[in-house]
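User: Hey, quick favor. My workstation is busy. Could you predict this chain's structure for me?
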Amino acid sequence: MKSSKPFLSLVIALVITPVFLFAGLASAGAGHGDYLWAKVLFPFTLLSFRVSGTITHPFMAFAIVQFPLYGFILSIGNVKGRHLPSLVALIVVHSLAVAACFLLLNENFS
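Assistant: No problem, here it is.
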């Protein structure tokens, strides 16, 4: 079912992004935190550490655009009448990345 507000998901994502970025940074605690919210909210950025040994600038940029990208995907799904499948796909992919964060990151991200 198509919504009368097809880009509401994108607007919501743009509004919550700064809040989520602050929560992720606060969770990291300048390198002395537990990274819980960073892992939950920005798993792809933290998983970049497994590949390169550091969190790279492109993945830092991805953290900034991650939720607006999610909102865009949901908005496109909504326009095409496929909002629920888009939402389920995003939840599954994000959840798998979060699980990978908790399973694969070492003691530097405890």
